[in-house]
Amino acid sequence: MSHYWVMTPVYTYVEPVLDDGSGPRYDTRDVVCVAAPNKREARKEAVKTPEFRRHVNDCRSDRVPPFKGLEVEDCLCEHGFCWCEIPDCHPDEEGCPTCLAKDRERWEAEDRERRENGVGVWI
Ligand SMILES: [Zn+2]
Ligand SMILES: [Zn+2]
Q1: How many other CB atoms are there within 10 angstroms of residue 9's CB atom?
Q2: Any residues with CB less than 8 A from the CB of 86 and at least 6 apart, and which?
Q3: How confident is the model at residue 85, as a pLDDT?
Q4: Positive or negative CA dihedral for 56, 72, 88, 45?
Q5: How far is the CA of 44 from the centre of ligand 1 (A)?
Q6: Phi, psi (5° rounding) for residue 47?
Q7: Which pLDDT value is given to residue 121?
Q8: CA of 44 to the centre of ligand 2 (A)
């Protein structure tokens, strides 16, 4: 069994802030982590999850197969670490040290840039 991220196509979500159901709009996608022997089975597993209920309902009302447009990505990073969210997959590890270090570097660089440009400074 491998672990996969399965993603729905991007859709616009309206956060119902006002009484008439209107509010800020976000482009978003639903993502779920599943264990499956291959990508094809991963799609099948994903449409059974509660995370994908909205997507499946949308497809049903549009009469399109729910597997259409789903993106599947291997959870393994290039260094062979699994970065899925499945409990018990990697209970002792936070993730790949190389990727984490790279992430941290990127955040720090972005942070520096923000401060130098004076954008997004917290008061
Ligand atoms: Zn995993
Ligand atoms: Zn890595």
Answers
A1: 12
A2: 3, 33, 34, 35
A3: 84
A4: positive
A5: 18
A6: -70, -10
A7: 54
A8: 27
| Ligand 2 centroid to residue 82 C-alpha, Å | 8
Task: Give the C-alpha separation, 95 to 99, whole Å.
Answer: 8
Q: Percent of the chain having pLDDT more than 90?
A: 66
pLDDT over 80 at 14, yes or no? yes
Distance (Å) from CA 111 to ligand 1 centroid: 30
pLDDT digits (tens, 9 = 90+) for 72-85: 999 998 998 998 88
Whole-number Å distance, alpha carbon 30 to ligand 1 midpoint, is 18
What spacing in Å lies between the alpha carbon of 59 and ligand 1's midpoint? Answer: 28
- Its pTM stands at 0.72
